């Protein structure tokens, strides 16, 4: 009888340790919650009048891509430099069809004036990404 009680006590203690140990798994917290926007480039060059593409996705704390809406906008680069005289336009590439749908967004960047300008990519709840674009 004592063996059965000791065995049951051991099993119960093990289950408690496992249950409490899994409670604070750092990778479980934030899974599926937008953390950051990631772009496929941190910098790129485009000839004046030509286009280039930037693809971005939103990820959680485990770097798992999430379905999310991403917006892109031309902005001043930080830190500012004397080369920051460039001009670009940015638009969502309507021909891009990611699988699964909505997992990433591709933007078309057109250089319209020689110099440097940045593209800021943002999504609700996630830290933004910035891509420095040099127009040659």
Number of domains: 1
What overall form do the CA principal axes indicate?
elongated
Helix content: 10-25%
Let me know the largest β-sheet: 5 strands, antiparallel
CATH superfamily: Immunoglobulins
H and E order: HEEEEEEEEE
Distance between the termini: 85 Å
* Mean pLDDT level: 86
Number of helices: 1
CATH architecture: Sandwich
Low-confidence stretches: none
How much β-strand is present in the residues?
Answer: 35-45%
Q: What is the CATH class designation?
A: Mainly Beta
Q: Give me the count of strands.
A: 9
Radius of gyration: 24 Å
Structural class of the secondary elements? alpha+beta
CATH topology-level name? Immunoglobulin-like
Give an overview in words.
It is a single chain. 16% of the residues lie in helices and 43% in strands. The chain has 136 residues and is an alpha+beta fold. The protein has one domain: Sandwich (Immunoglobulin-like). The strands form two sheets. Strands 1, 3, 4, 6 and 7 form a five-stranded antiparallel sheet that branches. It has a four-stranded mixed sheet with strand order 2-9-8-5, with no helix packed on it. Strand 8 and strand 9 form a beta hairpin. It starts with a helix and ends with a strand. The model has no long low-confidence stretch (mean pLDDT 86).
Descriptive key words:
136 residues; Immunoglobulin-like; five-stranded antiparallel sheet; four-stranded mixed sheet
Walk me through the topology:
Blueprint: H1 2-23, E1 36-39, E2 43-46, E3 51-59, E4 65-66, E5 71-75, E6 87-92, E7 105-113, E8 115-123, E9 126-135
Parallel strand pairs: 2-9
Antiparallel strand pairs: 1-3, 3-4, 3-7, 5-8, 6-7, 8-9
């Amino acid at each position: 009888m004592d063996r059965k009680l000791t065995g049951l006590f051991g099993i119960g203690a093990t289950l408690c340790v496992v249950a409490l140990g899994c409670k604070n798994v750092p990778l479980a917290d934030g899974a599926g919650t937008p953390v950051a926007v990631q772009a496929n480039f941190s910098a790129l060059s485009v000839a004046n009048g030509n286009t280039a593409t930037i693809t971005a996705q939103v990820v959680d704390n485990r770097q798992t891509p999430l379905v999310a809406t991403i917006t892109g906008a031309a902005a001043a680069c930080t830190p500012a430099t004397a080369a920051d005289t460039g001009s670009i336009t940015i638009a969502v590439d309507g021909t891009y069809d990611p699988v699964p749908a909505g997992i990433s967004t591709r933007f078309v960047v057109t250089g319209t004036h020689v110099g440097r300008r940045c593209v800021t990519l943002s999504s609700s709840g996630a830290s933004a990404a910035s891509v420095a674009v040099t127009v040659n």
